[in-house]
């Protein structure tokens, strides 16, 4: 999508079998747009851990490039084939331990390892890791494009009944192109509708504690000329009660067979408010964000709990410097639950790259 009028994606390389993976430092946004270089599997591990890169599809693709860099490192060490595979395996375990919730990370690592293990020579293994990372990146772009097209039909249907001919969409966190490779998941229908000159306005819940809504979604929508307004997480219910929201679209980090949607903390409360106000609530996700192994989301999805400092302190720009200001009493106990689960009874439908589907086990099973 556009940044200062120029098309960007979130992760790329400049040549085949490169030594550098380029990405955007999301920790500096919205204050500074900076491209950074990831040159080793350790750089990849830190980037996912400290959320330089974030968002389920982008985490998956970054992890796949991490396996590729690990394969290159193993190659440079001139290890025998068993130790070569072991080195990559050890790195893959470290990559998997960076963040627990987005299933894309685990799927990407497993799939990449399978491609590597299939090959017999070290050169072929390095090649296979690169080909998979690039394939996954392109796959995610195409998936988001498909989500955009399917979601556009939903927005067009809403438009038919709107007297003022403006659709108000509410979203949470950043399920935008920044969290993916291009287009985004929740934002893809918005970008497609905007392209068709449909009038729309987006309410963005700020998404405490890291404020990906306020900092990232607002930034990317504004760069793409989408009318948007940031509200506090607590205000979502109020704008719904006031009839100022036509549809809620969020992303997902992991969705189960039963259509339970795990997404950024606060999504569940937004879904409850939508239900109470008869507002359709959609989760937009590529098939890579489904976890077909999990049966009971509440019991089985590992919910990330991040550093409490993200709750006790607030990050922002002050006199041209990014600072962390404390907002709780000193030594106050805090917990930082980072994701929650929205039960399928609160989900109108899932907008996937394979079509719009009900959050129902019989339908989701057909996706495998
Ligand atoms: O902790 P984050 O910023 O990685 O969380 C991101 C989200 O919750 C998004 O909604 C998500 O990954 C959806 S897909 C872009």
Taken from the alpha-carbon principal axes, the silhouette is globular
CATH topology tier name of the largest domain: Rossmann fold
Largest sheet: 7 strands, mixed
Uncertain regions spanning at least 5 consecutive residues:
none
Q: What is the terminal separation in angstroms?
A: 30 Å
Secondary structure tally: strands: 18
Q: Would you kindly provide a written description of the structure presented here, covering whatever features stand out?
A:
The chain is 40% helix and 20% strand. It is an alpha/beta fold. The chain has 2 domains: 2-139, Up-down Bundle (Four Helix Bundle (Hemerythrin (Met), subunit A)); 163-367, Translation initiation factor eif-2b, domain 2 (Rossmann fold, 3-Layer(aba) Sandwich). The strands form 5 sheets. A 7-stranded mixed beta sheet has the order 8-7-6-9-12-17-18, sandwiched between helices. Strands 13-10-11-16 form a 4-stranded mixed beta sheet, with helices on one face. Strands 3-4-5 form a 3-stranded antiparallel beta sheet. The longest helix has 39 residues, at 122-160. It binds 5-S-methyl-1-O-phosphono-5-thio-D-ribulose.
In short:
The protein has 368 residues and is α/β, with parallel strands linked by helices. The chain is built from 12 helices and 18 strands. The longest helix has 39 residues, at 122-160.
